Amino acid sequence: MDSNETSMGVANLDAFADTLIELAANDHDILVTASDSRGSGRVTPFAEKYPDQFIEIGIAEQNLVGVSAGLASMGKKVFVVSPACFLTARALEQIKNDVAYSDHPVKVIGISAGVSYGVLGTTHHSLHDLAALQAINNIDIVVPADNFETGQAIRAAVVHPRPIYIRLGKKAMPILHDPTTHFEIGKAIQLTPVREEYDVALIATGETVAPAFFASQLLAEQGLASCVLSVHSLRPFDEQVVEQAATHSKSIVTVEEHSVNGGLGSRVASFLMQAGVFRPLRIVGIPDEHTVTGSQDEIFNHYGISAQGLAQTALQLLKKETV
Amino acid sequence: MDSNETSMGVANLDAFADTLIELAANDHDILVTASDSRGSGRVTPFAEKYPDQFIEIGIAEQNLVGVSAGLASMGKKVFVVSPACFLTARALEQIKNDVAYSDHPVKVIGISAGVSYGVLGTTHHSLHDLAALQAINNIDIVVPADNFETGQAIRAAVVHPRPIYIRLGKKAMPILHDPTTHFEIGKAIQLTPVREEYDVALIATGETVAPAFFASQLLAEQGLASCVLSVHSLRPFDEQVVEQAATHSKSIVTVEEHSVNGGLGSRVASFLMQAGVFRPLRIVGIPDEHTVTGSQDEIFNHYGISAQGLAQTALQLLKKETV
Amino acid sequence: MALLNFITHRNKYSNSEMMTHYPNTTDHYRALQAKSLLYRKTLLKLIYSAKAGHTGGSLSCVDLLNVLYNHVMDITPQNFTQMNRDHYIHSKGHAVEALYAVLADKGFFPWEALETVGKYGSNFVGHPTRDIPGIEQNTGALGHGLAFAVGMALAAKKDGLTNRIFTIMGDGELVEGSIWEASASAAHYKLDNLVAIVDRNTLQISGQTEDVMAMEPLEDKFKAFGYAVCHVDGNDIAALVDLFDQLPFEKGKPNLVLAHTTKGKGISFIEDKAPWHHKVPSETEFEIALRELGLAENDLEVVDGLE
Amino acid sequence: MALLNFITHRNKYSNSEMMTHYPNTTDHYRALQAKSLLYRKTLLKLIYSAKAGHTGGSLSCVDLLNVLYNHVMDITPQNFTQMNRDHYIHSKGHAVEALYAVLADKGFFPWEALETVGKYGSNFVGHPTRDIPGIEQNTGALGHGLAFAVGMALAAKKDGLTNRIFTIMGDGELVEGSIWEASASAAHYKLDNLVAIVDRNTLQISGQTEDVMAMEPLEDKFKAFGYAVCHVDGNDIAALVDLFDQLPFEKGKPNLVLAHTTKGKGISFIEDKAPWHHKVPSETEFEIALRELGLAENDLEVVDGLE
Ligand SMILES: Cc1ncc(C[n+]2csc(CCOP(=O)(O)OP(=O)(O)O)c2C)c(N)n1
Ligand SMILES: Cc1ncc(C[n+]2csc(CCOP(=O)(O)OP(=O)(O)O)c2C)c(N)n1
Ligand SMILES: [Mg+2]
Ligand SMILES: [Mg+2]
Fold first, then answer.
1. What pLDDT sits at residue D305?
2. Fewer beta carbons within 10 Å, N or C terminal of chain B?
3. A274 touches chain B (CB under 8 A)
4. Hey, are the CB atoms on A132 and B135 less than 8 Å from each other?
5. If you average pLDDT over residues D250-261, what whole number do you get?
6. Are A37 and A85 in contact (CB under 8 A)?
7. Residue C26 in contact with residue C170, Cβ under 8 Å?
8. How far is the CA of C207 from the centre of ligand 3 (A)?
9. Residues with Cβ < 8 Å from B76, sequence gap 6 or more?
10. Residue C157: burial class (beta carbons within 10 Å; 0-12, 13-18, 19+)
11. Domain residue limits, chain C
12. A137 contacts in chain D (CB < 8 Å)
């Protein structure tokens, strides 16, 4: 689909909350736990509709995760709904030990992730979560790009046998996939038509898939072919599709709402370098500096995470290669 | 120096504690804070010698870091001494917000890091710390290889103007550098003679530098030239020396006591790929799996972090390249 | 600019003069009350302009900040680089608009600087940061301020300083375990130079604190953790002045003030309403709010016959 | 192998039979006392063989574990996969050797399995993990067990189960704020099916708990956080049996047992000595320890004229 066709959806957080309301109707083992975060997590309607399936812990993220692990050990399907920044910093040890190491299939929902909180600043940004969790064994990591991926991820999470972290933003997202798209945790999705050769592979995750997709349209206007991937799963990481995209591309731009260290870009670079697939590459994300103040959009633009910015980066990379 | 020349030193933790005792004699602003960790941190003698410069917080790592930030804001030179696993998981949000974001020059000393605690298991391993902290802006990261680097790092830390994390192990380390070696935070050190061309660059950090160095001797016996780097600083990261080593090498093996995701290897791969320096590369570290039970040595051997294992990896990589 | 016009149009008590050691006269109280009204107007304007901010919690703690900065604490732009002055940590960092108003009034930065709050590239983000003159610590994640304050108080004791370290926490914030870790250490080290204040407005984002996660009896909890505990009406200027004049409450014990406040204090339709935690006033709401504050200003001056 | 020889040479009370609902006779107490001696011998042997482990804290809590597993709790290898049995979380995970001894005796795994404790590739690491039959949660980082137990107790309440959730914490561990977060939530949700036990041995690694970080008055703290609090001599089998028979202490309140113990209990030269937290006995020390335990076994049988 191209940008003319893309219509606006709701925030992935809303898609998450709607899906969960639907699923919980027939599954009383589904629980939502929250830390004074039901509003931000859009689960107030859930709490009102299923008061027996909603557990409030108050402002205590460590306890939130610990209690949720205990609930899960008793057979509950627990969705922990709290800001990504607090879950993966304040409660990181609980995620590491109580959930991942102890292997309870808790569904950790990091809400308003990345720089979603915009002007609230670094205390509220989660730009380290993908790095930290990728370095902790036994927790799958899913970062949905749009409402479709979100709904599918939540449905999959309910029955997922392992701990899982799902990272969601709070801004309305364009609809990027048609509803018949195959979604599977661990399998990347290609948004652009399959070709023999691409000028650039735009490998993105989460809320940066949309600008990557729109960048591919700008590049197409200049006669350049892109392979846009939504790598919604950081773990399991889809080596096969990434390798294939890279092999068939002249250059690679990775895009993420995360520090340029330790997230998707690092993963792609590490994998390709070890696989012997050598291509000019740029990791676009939030650079290792004091993050600029602004809304999510302003921060994205500032760091070139926009259709324009990404197209520009791709062009520079290609020029550099051909010069 | 070769392995015949290397003599055994003490644990880096002991080198740290000794250096601090020396420095604190003339600097009453140096404080050590601990969380029932003075024994593990080898700072009991410090606490006894300078009771006014030692602050016990009890088993409360979050408070430990928060209090230390407050002390630093009042002009104290605070060394926070606590297990790396707890500091960078339990207290990660305090490191992120109270120290790094707030820019207090706290010296966070992660003791018994990596898999130093051996059979105590994953709760006590810190295999995610380098990933998490590299993704958090404004905290320098130093992982000394031997007693010399440790002593130098501690001396530098006292006057370091920024937050800094120093990661130490508890096993006796061979002496790898002679005392006249130039040490500077942010500058990697080459342990092998400079040549025009190397068969392999062994790029290591912390307690894995020793096996990397010994691997280079095994490789030399097979007529292969190695460039062994101790990348003691992950931040600032020495792009120049790493690029130079890579450019002059046929292949690269990175080595670290950390998850293969998000640590030194990821950093090297991301950097080289973006710099356009393409070489066959292997990231050796603790793989993304349930860590095997054993002592640090047994775990190292299990995962090929040994002179033999690393030489083997290098040979395979070179064979692969030439086949 | 609208905001600037507004904030430069201050009431007659606006000045950045330190009011410490003023005799506790009616005049003094009235001057402080007028400042509170100014701060309320300013913070509402900030939130209204930025279309974001924490309305309820800023309004509930603004009288506390007022009395601290204008009567109790020795903190000025002039002495800010010195150690042996008082120190303040805004643990409930989301209520930053109240703090911005007070710091501007104290002369830490020009009022105009506030026009950039929440804007792209501004240092004035939605939580306190050390990028702002007058702010000592980046807060915003709840439960961090007290530990930091303990560290400062400990350093002050070690150096034989005579100053005090103040911090204001939310009541919802008290569930964070880090508060209790810090409390234990404050008592352990006998930090009677530490003044921990709870903005006990009984509300947090999701509703009544006791419904969300009950923490009463708070006095028992704090006493058991080693504090000297005092209750006060946290929106009553005179009561606050009187209480803080008695510091330290007990030698060798950290001080804990349970300041009973009304969330959204001062604006009828905002008071004691959970959704106003971070609701932004509409144009009409903003105008009514200003009118209510204007009436209060008139009252203050009429009643006391000052006009 | 030496370890196996040792642990199969058990005293006459060794069996994996459940002792719940036994009448509280002298015989019953004596049987339990004998088990404690067996566990002490086993855990010392484990630590001596592995040349690593937590001696003091294992010895202090072993009587508690004994009474819980052999008198109070309904947990067996047979019912382990069921939800409506009792549950146990070893929050002070470092004292794993005591737990390993008890679980072996309960038949969760053969005694021989203990020979691999701490060995390369073994599932028996130095802290509890779910890789070991009978263990429900990986612990070892302090301050995690209670929150997890709260989650279990909450699930049990939701499902209308009648079981209880037990956990033992160290007293040094209590400084962790997560303990207080979990405590508040236990009271908030009225979890009278939760039994939190403090191994109050007054020591932690660095010395006396009150010197390291004072937490007294513990009873006041726990009461203020909403528990029904009981004191007991945590090394007195009969006292423990009597106390736990009274569960729940108060309807609608979580139960908190302040179990006053001696760290290193049972071995004269280990008792109440901080360095024995994780000291490993030398050969001589090990032999003396075994002799002391042997004498105690003799005493037990002679005094009661059972031989
Ligand atoms: C660690 C952390 N968790 C959650 C939040 C999100 N948050 C911001 S304000 C707030 C409610 C605070 O309530 P309270 O402490 O009572 O403050 P007040 O009523 O004074 O505004 C929450 C949950 C946060 N900022 N930090
Ligand atoms: C979060 C955390 N911090 C530190 C440690 C290291 N540690 C292991 S045991 C121990 C002392 C525990 O003392 P206490 O709770 O009194 O246990 P006991 O005396 O019963 O052995 C410490 C600090 C840990 N395991 N977890
Ligand atoms: Mg409140
Ligand atoms: Mg103890």
1. 44
2. C
3. yes
4. yes
5. 98
6. no
7. no
8. 9
9. B29, B30, B31, C155, C158
10. middle
11. 3-306
12. none
Per-window interface: A 97-126 vs D, CB < 8 A: 97-98, 101-103
User: CATH 3.40.50.970 occupies which residues in chain A?
Assistant: 9-175
Question: How many whole angstroms separate alpha carbon D67 and alpha carbon D33?
Answer: 9
CA of C56 to the centre of ligand 1 (A): 11
Predicted complex ipTM: 0.97
Q: Assign a CATH topology to domain A189-316.
A: Rossmann fold (3.40.50)
Q: Where in chain B is the domain with CATH 3.40.50.920?
A: 189-316
pLDDT higher than threshold 60 for residue B205: yes
Q: Tell me if D94 CB under 6 Å of ligand 2.
A: yes
**Residues in chain B closer than 8 A to D213 (CB atoms):** 36, 56-60
Domain C3-306, architecture per CATH: 3-Layer(aba) Sandwich (3.40)
Q: Report the separation in Å between the CA atom of D173 and the middle of ligand 2, taken as the mean of its atom positions.
A: 6
**What is the rounded distance in angstroms from the CA atom of residue B221 to the CA atom of residue A177?**
57
Q: ω before B105 within 30° of 0 (cis)?
A: no
The token pair that represents C191 in the structure block: 């930090």
Which residue puts its alpha carbon closest to atom 19 of ligand 2?
Answer: D204
Does the pLDDT at position B4 exceed 80? no
Whether the CB of D200 sits within 6 Å of ligand 2: no
* DSSP reduced 3-state for B202: strand
- Summarize pLDDT for C231-266 with one digit per residue, the tens: 999 999 999 999 999 999 999 999 999 999 999 999
Question: Ligand 3: distance of its center to the CA of C278 in Å?
Answer: 12
Q: Please give the backbone phi and psi of residue A212, each rounded to the nearest 5 degrees, phi first.
A: -65, -40
What residues in B contact A260, CB-CB < 8 Å? 270
Cα C185 to Cα B91: distance, rounded to the nearest angstrom: 16
Cα(D99) to centroid of ligand 4, in Å? Answer: 16
Q: Mean per-residue pLDDT for D86-100?
A: 98
- Residue D127 Cβ inside 6 Å of ligand 2? The answer reads no
**pLDDT tier for residue B245 given thresholds of 50, 70 and 90:** very high
Q: Is B104 on the interface with A (CB under 8 A)?
A: no
Question: What pLDDT sits at residue B70?
Answer: 98
Alpha carbon dihedral D194, D199, D203, D208, in 10-degree steps, equals 60
As a whole number of angstroms, the distance between CA C7 and CA C3 comes to 6
Whether residue D73 is predicted with pLDDT greater than 80 in this model: the reply is yes
pTM of the model: 0.97
Domain A9-175 falls in which CATH fold?
Rossmann fold (3.40.50)
**Alpha carbon distance D305, D307 (integer Å):** 6
Would you say residue B274 has pLDDT above 80? Answer: yes
Pocket test for ligand 1, best of C92, C176, C202 (most atoms within 8 A of CB): C92
Cβ-based neighbours of B222, under 8 Å, separated by 6 or more? B311, B315
Mean per-residue pLDDT of chain D: 93
Q: How many whole angstroms separate alpha carbon A211 and alpha carbon A304?
A: 10
Q: Which two tokens stand for residue B235?
A: 């931040």
Yes or no: say if B94 and B69 are a contact pair by the CB < 8 Å rule.
yes
Pocket test for ligand 2, best of D59, D97, D173, D210 (most atoms within 8 A of CB): D173
Q: Is A291 part of the contact surface with chain C (CB cutoff 8 Å)?
A: no
Tell me whether B298 touches chain C (CB under 8 Å): no
For residue D90, give every residue at least 6 positions away whose Cβ sits within 8 Å of its Cβ, in sequence order, or none. D96, D99, D128, D135, D137, D139, D145, D167, D168
> Chain A within 8 Å of C196 (Cβ-Cβ)?
no
Length of chain B, please?
323
d(CA C128, CA C130): 7
Helices of type H across A179-306: 209-221, 239-247, 264-275, 296-302
In this prediction, residues A232-243 reach a mean pLDDT of 98
Beta bridge partners of D166: D88, D195
